[in-house]
Automatic annotation (TrEMBL):
Taxonomic path: Bacteria, Bacillati, Bacillota, Clostridia, Eubacteriales
Gene3D superfamilies for this protein: 2.60.40.2000
Gene Ontology biological process terms in this record: sporulation resulting in formation of a cellular spore
InterPro entries membership: Spore_YabP (IPR012504), Spore_YabP/YqfC (IPR022476), YabP_sf (IPR038705)
Protein name as it appears in the record: Sporulation protein YabP
Lineage top rank: taxon: Bacteria
One Pfam short name: YabP
Length: 94
């Protein structure tokens, strides 16, 4: 297996998710967060989710809320996920 760098995902009681290896956050709201990681595209689903810590220089992310599921998706990028209209600009212009 290739070495992709540090990639650690930890979930504490389905209420707090900690992830190392984040490269880009595509879109986020209380029900879904899309990310590019060093292991591929990652989609988080839940309720009341908020990003409480993000440091792209170190690749660290902390999400708090109810985590219902997560899925790694091959051949997809969080940069392309903005087309769904959940980007920061679209939410600000509501």
């Amino acid at each position: 297996m290739e070495d992709y760098g540090k990639h650690i995902l930890s979930i504490d009681g389905r209420k707090k998710l900690m992830l190392q290896g984040v490269q880009h956050v595509g879109s986020f709201d209380e029900q879904e967060i899309t990310l590019d990681t060093n292991m591929g595209f990652l989609q988080l689903k839940g309720e009341g989710m908020h990003i409480t810590h993000l440091n792209l220089d170190d690749g660290n992310l902390v999400v708090e809320g109810i985590i219902n599921g997560l899925e790694y998706v091959e051949g997809k990028s969080a940069k392309g996920a903005r087309a769904r209209g959940k980007g920061l600009i679209n939410r600000l212009l509501k």
